[in-house]
Amino acid sequence: MSILKNPYFLLPALLFWVNQYLERIQAIFIPYLYSYFDDLMAMPVVLGTTLQIYRWIHPLKNGFVFTPVQVMVGLVYFSILFEGLLPIWSSTYTRDFWDVGCYLIGTVYFYFLINRNRA
């Protein structure tokens, strides 16, 4: 099954889009959703999109899945970049270690519900 048809991928992608629409177009900011929802949805959306791209180009096609190490590298990369480095480089970003917890939850969601062998 294509990741783009997987309901476990479509739900976070849709919720992420709706949240962005409310914040950026409608200027509606719900406090905890504004602070943490995008971080919670980020890993399923980013890793799911990346997995789909790999499936288009990898010989295993829909049989390709990320290993636990590859998924953890994604989690560590996001955590270091968005919670460590970007707040140092730009005042646009705020260091919030609760975001790392959101990335972790999203990564676990991705690993068990989206990163499946559907060949």
From TrEMBL:
Keywords: Membrane, Transmembrane, Transmembrane helix. The keyword Transmembrane applies. The chain crosses the membrane at residues 64-85, 97-114. This is Magnesium citrate secondary transporter. It comes from Cyclobacterium plantarum.
